[in-house]
Automatic annotation (TrEMBL):
Protein's name in the database: Uncharacterized protein
Native species: Methylocucumis oryzae
Protein origin, superkingdom: Bacteria
Amino acid sequence: MRIQFELTDEKAKELEAFMSTIGVTTKKDLFENSLSLLEWAVKEIQSNPNRVIGSIDEENESYKELQMAIFSNARSNARAKNVKS
């Protein structure tokens, strides 16, 4: 399968800089890693709709939730599935 994206020149430069920052050399690797992280996050929510995806600051014992519409959709779908079961 071939996937093609159109980006502005500015966004393409940002993407290249980001890839360099994380040590990814191909857009395929970036896509595969990004998709793996997204799949993991959605599976966590599906396994328990009360789970929160976020970042933990262990030193200050705090966390910051990552809020994305797709997580809300996954949570709603998981809760609806639990109600039907």
